[in-house]
């Protein structure tokens, strides 16, 4: 095995250790916030079944990534404390194959799931009767497709990789798949941008429907709920877009221009710009805040529509008395 000569010096750099500790903390935060979010979601009646299934699936991807990352970082921290030889601190990419594939599976799953959410909102907006009648089946179908596509991504990315190089941590992808990984991250940026655009369009479509369906309270309220959920999903995707775009751009620049940097600096930058833990931690946090905000707005909307209905009934009774 070709060992990384600077490994002992790199893994004992304060910035490297700080990055490991921060990512581990963010991973534990993801787990705790997800538990809080799921318990809050369980008590809420705001979302329909298909949306709940997709959000829970997306949260599951984030938590699986957090668990794998905790295992990797704890192992790396213990190894760096016990060993001093470069070969003991360098890992063969073949040994990292399983955790690397799981990480890619989780990243792809979160991105595809966020796109499935806007598809769910589009169907709920455009084909409201179909979505209402087949909500559960539609949600399970989308979740199955998301899981299957996410499962395929690591195999498509790594299937030609010889796994014959070494890395400092299993978070880093094999060098033989650099081009495929760059392509994946570019695709992620495009998909996230498409999801943001789609959610904005769905938001304004439901906002318009809410105004035009003034006297149909049922459809008007459905449009209001679709608008709220689109806002929620848009907030989540926007944050994911910011983190993943920064991550993708940083990794691309490090791979293409990194030869001009000292190896120690390059490796420290690679670990610091691994921003997926920020993305996973922000998912349950924003979802929790958005759920509380949407619940509050929903109650206000119910009160407003009820008052409008009461006022309308009083006005009609007044007219009937005038004509009688």
UniProtKB/TrEMBL annotation:
- Subcellular compartments: Membrane
Q: Which Pfam families match?
A: 7TM_GPCR_Sra
Q: Name one GO cellular component term.
A: membrane
Q: Does the keyword Transferase apply?
A: no
**GO molecular function terms listed in the Swiss-Prot or TrEMBL record:** G protein-coupled receptor activity; olfactory receptor activity
Q: Which UniProt keywords apply?
A: Membrane, Transmembrane, Transmembrane helix
| Membrane-traversing stretches | 51-72, 97-117, 138-159, 179-205, 229-251, 271-295
Give the bilayer topology.
Answer: Multi-pass membrane protein
Q: What is this protein called?
A: G-protein coupled receptors family 1 profile domain-containing protein
List the lineage, top down: Eukaryota, Metazoa, Ecdysozoa, Nematoda, Chromadorea
Q: Which gene encodes it?
A: Acey_s0007.g3437
């Amino acid at each position: 095995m070709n060992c990384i000569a600077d490994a002992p010096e790199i893994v004992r750099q304060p910035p490297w250790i700080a990055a490991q500790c921060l990512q581990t903390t963010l991973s534990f935060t993801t787990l705790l916030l997800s538990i809080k979010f799921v318990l809050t979601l369980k008590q809420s009646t705001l979302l329909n079944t298909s949306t709940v299934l997709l959000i829970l699936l997306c949260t599951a991807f984030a938590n699986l990534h957090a668990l794998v990352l905790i295992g990797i970082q704890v192992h790396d921290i213990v190894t760096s404390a016990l060993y001093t030889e470069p070969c003991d601190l360098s890992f063969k990419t073949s040994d990292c194959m399983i955790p690397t594939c799981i990480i890619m599976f989780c990243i792809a799953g979160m991105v595809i799931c966020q796109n499935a959410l806007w598809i769910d909102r589009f169907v709920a907006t455009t084909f409201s009767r179909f979505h209402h009648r087949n909500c559960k089946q539609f949600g399970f179908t989308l979740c199955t497709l998301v899981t299957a596509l996410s499962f395929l991504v690591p195999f498509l990315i790594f299937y030609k990789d010889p796994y014959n190089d070494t890395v400092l941590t299993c978070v880093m992808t094999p060098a033989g798949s650099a081009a495929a990984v760059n392509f994946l991250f570019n695709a992620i940026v495009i998909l996230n941008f498409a999801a943001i655009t789609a959610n904005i369009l769905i938001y304004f479509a439901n906002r318009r429907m809410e105004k035009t369906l003034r006297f149909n309270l049922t459809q008007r309220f459905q449009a209001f709920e679709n608008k709220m959920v689109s806002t929620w999903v848009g907030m989540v995707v926007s944050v994911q877009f910011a983190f993943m775009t920064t991550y993708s751009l940083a990794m691309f620049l490090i791979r293409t221009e990194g030869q001009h940097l000292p190896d120690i600096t390059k490796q420290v930058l690679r670990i610091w710009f691994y921003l997926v833990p920020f993305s996973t931690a922000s998912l349950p946090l924003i979802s929790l805040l958005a759920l509380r905000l949407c619940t509050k707005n929903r109650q206000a909307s119910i009160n407003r529509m009820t008052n409008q209905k009461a006022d309308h009934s009083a006005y009609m009774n007044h007219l009937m008395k005038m004509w009688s």
